[in-house]
Amino acid sequence: MMRNLMLAVLAVGGVSAMASSPAAAAPTYPYCIQSQAFGTDCSYPSYEACQATASGRGVDCIVNPRLAFSPQPYAEPRRSRRSVAY
Asked: Cβ distance 42 to 60 under 8 Å?
């Protein structure tokens, strides 16, 4: 009896693990709150939203270092336009 119950619990757990969706990547926001006590929280879409949350808490709003110092993609080189004489 106990063995059947254990197998049923394992089966339900396995099915629920397979049915769960994969984790989605969190969006990268441009502003962060930084404090000595709590670290960095980069979940603010605007500087105003960051300032509103930081107001009166003794924390700073900074530009997200992940965005500020990430490598920027290179611009495609400009193609020269040659005139064609017909």
From this structure: no
What would the two tokens of residue 53 be? Answer: 């949350």
The residues of the chain scoring below 50 in pLDDT are: none
The per-residue b/e assignment along 5-42, b for 16 or more CB within 10 angstroms, e otherwise, is eeeeeeeeeeeeeeeeeeeeeeeebebbbbeeeeeebb
What contacts 25, CB < 8 A, 6 or more positions away? none
Global pTM value: 0.53
Phi, psi of 45 (to 5 degrees): -80, -20
Show me where the domains of the chain are located: 26-70
Identify the CA nearest to 66 among candidates 23, 30, 24, 35: 30
Per the CB < 8 A criterion, the answer to whether 63 and 30 are in contact is yes
What is the per-residue pLDDT across 23-35, written as a single tens digit (0 to 9) for each?
Answer: 677 678 999 999 9
